[in-house]
Specification:
Layout (H helix, E strand, L loop, with lengths): L1 E2 L2 H13 L6 E3 L6 H4 L4 E3 L7 H6 L6 E2 L10 H7 L12 H4 L1 H10 L7 E4 L2 H10 L4 E4 L12 E2 L3 H8 L8 E5 L5 E9 L2 E11 L1 E3 L3 E4 L5 E6 L7 H5 L4 H6 L4 E10 L2 E8 L7 H7 L3 H9 L14 E8 L13 E5 L6 E4 L2 E3 L5 E3 L3 E9 L2 H12 L2 E3 L20
Parallel strand pairs: 1-2, 1-4, 2-3
Antiparallel strand pairs: 5-8, 6-7, 6-8, 9-10, 9-14, 10-13, 11-12, 13-16, 14-15, 16-21, 17-20, 17-22, 18-21, 19-20
Helix pairs in contact: 1-11, 7-8
The site of magnesium ion has 2 residues, from loops.
């Protein structure tokens, strides 16, 4: 059972179904209900406030969550007691994503480079940090949740940092992390049976517009993954493997993703996530020979040896954003989504609904993720680009440069 909505639930449910699983979705948020309903039975949290009876009735073997907010749900304890495995670390192991300062302390303990960072409770304390240690900071939520009052604001100068510090919401405090430039990459692995198994190195295109212009969006405008079991770029070696004693101590099993910036000759951790990732997950599952088994093995913390399909080495994902994005307060009416030619790669619908005449309509800001795989980066990018250009929706746009820049890892343009 997938816990999630939109293109995450659509893609993960469909790919696992294609690989032989019987799938269903528990819709954890109040939007993006239509796409996963195209795959298997789906149940809204509103109608089913407690998913446990469903899990039992459907004899669910394991759960695949979109985000870490399930752990805050009133039924989280009961879920853990039910013994149904969830593809997500639990207990202390979750803190590596949930609490940014926990990740910082962990990096210090294991000598992993991490930018200078401070947790501050209010505007006065934030200004004092900036006075004492004047440098540009990225402003983040100290506790990660899809519902945080603060979304990451990337400031590149001291003056920009001060301007935003005068404006942000301090209800949960803020996490100030030294800005380390634009050379960024990520690496995703599965941890199971005490071992770290590398899957891909990836790039997320976080800025709104082509040329890496505009603000850093809440969710990426595109992504690139390269199959990388041997850790070609050294990200796992430098930023994940030193954590092995911690992984074992907290009985970590599940996905781990590190996002890092290359700064002064080395990689620095800017964030750890404990999931496959909204953008990368749909590509990773398609690259695996037996995705159901790899996830099922990890959920049960058993010895894992993921196998990859030979015909593909790269995946490219492009997001079609709608009217108003990335400024969430600007919203348009419901408008039709149409295709000018048949689509011949994966298209995962997001804030889209079906109308009674079978037409698709856009009802929100993120319309679809178009995903192609290829032997080379160029073939994957070309196919995604050809397909996304076939989708029409008034006011919609996508980045025309996904996959062309910020690659190979360490490149900042
Ligand atoms: N310290 C930093 N230096 C430079 N860029 C950063 C830094 N921290 C975050 N960013 C940029 O902001 C994006 C989002 O930040 P991240 O820490 O991954 O938070 P979240 O994914 O929760 O929004 C990153 O992908 C990166 O592009
Ligand atoms: Mg991130």
């Amino acid at each position: 059972m997938v816990l999630g909505v939109g293109s995450f639930a659509h893609s993960h449910a469909q790919i696992l179904q294609d690989a032989g699983a019987r799938v269903s979705t528990y819709l954890t948020r109040n939007y993006g209900h239509f796409p996963p309903s195209l795959v298997g039975p789906s149940f809204s949290a509103q109608e089913h406030p407690d998913p446990l009876p469903l899990l039992k009735r459907l004899k669910v073997d394991f759960i695949l969550p979109q985000s870490i907010d399930w752990a805050q749900a009133p039924w989280a304890e009961a879920l853990l007691h039910s013994g149904i495995p969830i593809l997500c670390p639990t207990g202390e192991a979750m803190l590596i994503e949930r609490e940014r300062d926990y990740a910082r302390r962990l990096c210090r303990e294991f000598k992993i480079p991490f930018p200078q960072s401070h947790v501050v409770p209010n505007r006065l304390a934030a200004s004092q940090v900036l006075k004492r240690s004047p440098r540009p900071y990225v402003i983040k939520n100290p506790l990660c949740s899809p519902w945080s009052p603060v979304h990451t604001i990337v400031c590149e100068t001291v003056e920009e940092t001060q301007a935003w510090l005068d404006r942000v919401n301090y209800a949960e405090g803020v996490f100030l992390q030294e800005y380390l430039g634009r050379a960024e990459a990520g690496h995703i692995a599965l941890v199971s049976g005490g071992e770290i198994r590398s899957l891909v190195t990836n790039q997320e295109y976080k800025r709104a517009y082509a040329g890496n212009q505009g603000i850093v969006c809440g969710a990426p405008m595109g992504g690139l993954v390269e199959k990388d079991p041997d850790d070609r770029y050294g990200l796992a070696r430098e930023l994940l493997h030193p954590l092995r004693p911690w992984f074992r101590r907290v009985k970590y099993h599940g996905p781990i993703q590190v996002t890092a910036c290359h700064h002064r000759g080395k990689w620095h951790v800017i964030e750890y996530n404990i999931r496959l990732g909204i953008t990368s997950g749909a590509m990773i599952l398609r690259l695996l020979e037996d995705p159901v088994n790899s996830l099922w093995t990890t959920a049960r913390n058993q010895k894992l040896a993921p196998r990859f399909r030979k015909e593909f080495s790269f995946g490219c994902s492009m997001t079609l954003a709608g009217y108003g994005y990335p400024y969430l307060k600007v919203r348009g009416p419901r408008t039709p989504v149409s295709c000018t030619a048949p689509l011949d790669c994966d298209v995962w619908w997001n804030e889209v609904e079906g109308s009674t005449d079978g037409q698709r309509v856009a009802v929100g800001h993120r319309i679809a993720d178009v995903v192609a795989l290829g032997k080379t980066r160029e073939t994957a990018v070309r196919q995604a680009r050809t397909n996304i250009a076939r989708i029409h929706c008034l006011g919609a746009f996508y980045r025309t440069d996904i996959g062309d820049n910020l690659w190979p890892p360490g490149t900042d343009h």
